[in-house]
Automatic annotation (TrEMBL):
Enzyme class, spelled out: transferase
Catalytic activity: alpha-D-glucose 1-phosphate + ATP + H(+) = ADP-alpha-D-glucose + diphosphate
A GO biological-process term: glycogen biosynthetic process
Record protein name field: Glucose-1-phosphate adenylyltransferase
Organism of origin: Aquibium oceanicum
Gene3D superfamilies membership: Hexapeptide repeat proteins (2.160.10.10), Spore Coat Polysaccharide Biosynthesis Protein SpsA, Chain A (3.90.550.10)
Quaternary assembly: Homotetramer.
Length: 420
């Protein structure tokens, strides 16, 4: 007897990515772009991780809701994610806040960002909705989460991280029973509840939710009719289902994608300059916690047509070199030294300069004799000759954005003010 083939649930699902957030804790990095559009890892953007997870999981219908300073994000999506074909039952919709429900109403919350596009979603006729945050770095197979959602008969399945209990105070925390059914949802608790099998660990929400589409649409319409609602998944939709339906926690460890070189489940919220710098610099380790070289789970992005990186000059004191560093295409390291640095596309680093633990975004220019340590340099910045950063914190704090951990964020406006 022939075994019946199980159809992947992902092929009947739509991934809906919430990418409208500003990310104000990233300071000047989000002055001209939304947090999901911030560069990461040498050639990708933050949003590419959620989108790649969806694509690699087998999901072929994707919507992206945008709002805050969305031009950079929309341009990236149009260039890098335009390969979906309707004739293959694929779709990729960019959904800016466009006052489709009301002439005065933008997206009021995460749930409202879905509610305002109900007609578009229902037109596709998908059975499942996978709601995703577009601003985290991780690799995850959503098919596993979809399968658990069906097997448990849940109304909503919530993706959760296992974190040390007292480190969960800044998250929405799921209080669960022995079967991981959510019995209460607590936003940023002072004393987070532990989980039954590991009382020293709490389950923190990842902002990932799975619903059957019909149920979600009913919940969104109900919530929209409630005066005083925040129109938010974490504040309104999920707590209502916990109290009146069946909500189940899905542990990230069950569906985290790891290569042979990754020993731990990797998830990062790169929402501060320090966290952003650290996550990028960590990629320069010999065996980093996040494997970007995993061919079985590639991170898709806009692949620019650029020449290879180039290292020139080979004389004492003027030798183009990079140690424990990632250097993207179209970079020219001309008689300069890089150590434990990550250099994005199109950078020019000139002779006698030294970069140590530097994150340099695309199209930057570093003049001769510059010494830059523990820096994040925004796109297109022109570093003047002889600039020294990272050796005198008092001087750095007066000129640039200096973080608690001593990382300097440098923008072109800050450089321009040096001459005034």
């Amino acid at each position: 007897m022939t075994e019946k083939r199980i159809q992947p649930l992902a092929r009947d699902a739509m991934a809906y990515v919430l990418a409208g957030g500003r990310g104000s804790r990233l300071k000047e990095l989000t002055d001209v772009r939304a947090k999901p559009a911030v560069y990461f890892g040498g050639k990708t953007r933050i949003i590419d991780f959620a989108l790649s997870n969806a694509l690699n999981s087998g999901i072929r219908r994707i919507g992206v809701a945008t709002q805050y300073k969305a031009h950079s994000l929309i341009r990236h999506l149009q260039r890098g994610w335009n390969f979906f074909r309707p004739e293959r039952n694929e779709s990729f919709d960019i959904l800016p806040a466009s006052q489709r429900v009301s002439e005065t109403q933008w997206y009021e919350g995460t749930a409202d960002a879905v509610y305002q596009n109900i007609d578009i979603i229902e037109d596709y006729g998908v059975e499942f909705m996978v709601i995703l945050a577009g601003d985290h770095i991780y690799k995850m197979d959503y098919e596993s989460m979809l399968r658990e959602h069906v097997d448990t008969g849940a109304d909503v399945t919530v993706g959760c991280l296992e974190v040390p209990r007292m480190e969960a105070t800044g998250f929405g925390v799921m209080h669960v029973d022995k079967e991981d059914r959510i019995v209460s949802f607590i936003e940023k608790p002072a004393d987070p509840p532990g989980i039954p099998d590991r009382p020293d660990v709490a389950l923190a929400s990842m902002g990932i939710y799975v619903f059957r589409t019909k149920f979600l649409m009913e919940e969104l319409r109900r919530d929209a009719s409630q005066p005083g609602s925040n129109r938010d998944f974490g504040k309104d939709i999920i707590p209502h289902i916990v109290a009146n339906g069946k909500a189940v926690a899905h542990r990230f460890s069950k569906s985290c994608v790891r290569s042979n070189f990754e020993t731990e489940s990797y998830w990062r919220d790169v929402g501060t300059v320090d966290a952003y710098w650290e996550a990028n610099i960590d990629l320069t380790d010999i065996t980093p916690e996040l494997d970007l070289y995993d061919r079985d789970w590639p991170i898709w992005t806009y692949a620019e047509i650029k020449p290879p990186a180039k290292f020139v000059h080979d004389e004492e004191g003027r030798r183009g070199s990079a140690v424990s560093s990632l250097v993207a295409g179209d970079c020219i390291i001309s008689g300069a030294k890089l150590r434990r640095s990550l250099i994005f596309t199109g950078a020019r680093v000139n002779s006698f300069s030294m970069l140590d633990e530097a994150v340099v975004l695309p199209d930057c220019y570093v003049g001769r004799n510059a010494r830059l340590t523990r820096v994040v340099i925004d796109r297109g910045v022109r570093i003047p000759e002889g600039l020294v950063v990272g050796e005198d914190p008092d001087v750095d704090a007066r000129r640039f954005r200096l973080t608690e951990r001593g990382v300097c964020l440098i923008t072109q406006d800050m450089i321009d003010r040096l001459d005034t």
